[in-house]
Amino acid sequence: MIVGILGCGAIASIILNNFLSKDSGIDIKYFYDHDMEKAENLATISDGIAVLDIDDMIDNVDLVLEAASPISVEKFGLKVLKKGKNIIIMSIGALMDNKFRDRMIEAATNNDAKIFAPSGAIVGLDGIKAASIGKINRATLTTRKPPRSLGKLVDEEEILYEGKASEAVKMFPVNINVAAALSIACNLDVDVKIIVDPKVDKNVHEVIVEGDFGQFKTRTENLPCEVNPKTSMLAAYSAIKLLKSLNENFIMGT
Ligand SMILES: NC(=O)C1=CN([C@@H]2O[C@H](COP(=O)(O)OP(=O)(O)OC[C@H]3O[C@@H](n4cnc5c(N)ncnc54)[C@H](O)[C@@H]3O)[C@@H](O)[C@H]2O)C=CC1
Ligand SMILES: O=C([O-])CC(=O)C(=O)O
C-alpha cells in the first residue's frame, strides 16, 4: 500500500519513524505540507518524495493520511475521495459539520473509497461502537491539559470551555478533535469541558457514556508529543495501529 502524508508535523514524524526499515507492506512515500521544508525533511529521512502540488501525491497513492488541520480536511478531503483514494483523518473536528461529513461519505461511496477516523487520543471508542447498537443517552468529555499544551500561562486551574462539542471544535480546532470523535461515534453533540491545569503534565481525557448497555467511564493520561505538546503520543499510535490493521487479516476489537 502506497501512502501519502498530508501535514508533516508531530504525528507524521512519529508515524514515519514507526514504518522506517520495517517490512510492513506499507510504503509511506509522498509528503505534502504547506511548509515545504517540513515535507522535505520527512522525505529526506525516508527516501521519499516531497510534493509542491498535492495532486502529485493523491494521484500516486492508495491512501492519504491527513495529520495537518481541520481546514486541510475541508480543502482536500473531497478531492482525495473523488479520485477514489482512501483517507485517514486525524483532524476529526472537520467532520463535526454534518453537511460536510455527509458530502465526504457520499464522495467515498460514489468512488469506492473509505474514510478512516482513528480513535486518536481517547480510549473507549471500541465500547461506544458496540454501545451504539442500542441507544446512547448521554456522553461527556472532560479534557485537562497542562498550560504548555493549551498555550496558556496560568497559576491555577481554569475552565477554558464548557459547552457542546460542536462549538468546542470551532474554538479549539487543534486541541479537541477527540470531542468530535466521541460525538460522531455516539451520534450526539457531547458535553465538553476543557480545563487548563498547571498541576498536570499529561493530556488527560475523561469520557463518561451512558446508554442501554449501562455506563462506562474511561480516563486517559497521555504523554504529550515532545515537538507538539498539544498532541498526545497515543493519537499517533492509534493512526499507526489503524494503518497496520488495513493489511491484517485478524481484526481485534469493534
Ligand atoms: N484525533 C485526535 O485524537 C487528534 C488529532 N490531532 C490533530 O491532528 C492534526 C496533526 O497534529 P500534529 O501532527 O500534532 O500537528 P503539527 O502542528 O505538529 O503538524 C501539522 C502539520 O500540518 C501542516 N499543515 C497545517 N495545515 C495545513 C494545510 N492546510 N495544508 C498543508 N499543510 C498543513 C503544518 O505546517 C504542520 O507541519 C491536527 O489537526 C491535530 O489537531 C492531534 C491530536 C489528537
Ligand atoms: O492529543 C490530544 O490529547 C487531543 C488533541 O489534541 C485533540 O483531540 O485534538
UniProtKB/TrEMBL annotation:
Protein's name according to its UniProt entry: L-aspartate dehydrogenase
Family: Belongs to the L-aspartate dehydrogenase family.
Note: The iminoaspartate product is unstable in aqueous solution and can decompose to oxaloacetate and ammonia.
Domain annotation Aspartate/homoserine dehydrogenase NAD-binding: ranges: 7-117
EC class: oxidoreductase
Domain Aspartate dehydrogenase: 155-240
Swiss-Prot/TrEMBL catalytic activity: L-aspartate + NADP(+) + H2O = oxaloacetate + NH4(+) + NADPH + H(+); L-aspartate + NAD(+) + H2O = oxaloacetate + NH4(+) + NADH + H(+)
One Pfam family this sequence matches: Asp_DH_C
Record-level GO BP terms: NAD+ biosynthetic process
SUPFAM superfamilies per UniProt: Glyceraldehyde-3-phosphate dehydrogenase-like, C-terminal domain (SSF55347), NAD(P)-binding Rossmann-fold domains (SSF51735)
Species lineage: Archaea, Methanobacteriati, Methanobacteriota, Methanomada group, Methanobacteria
Pathway terms, separated by semicolons: Cofactor biosynthesis; NAD(+) biosynthesis; iminoaspartate from L-aspartate (dehydrogenase route): step 1/1
HAMAP family cross-referenced by the UniProt entry: NadX
Role this protein plays: Specifically catalyzes the NAD or NADP-dependent dehydrogenation of L-aspartate to iminoaspartate.
One Gene Ontology molecular-function label: oxidoreductase activity, acting on the CH-NH2 group of donors, NAD or NADP as acceptor
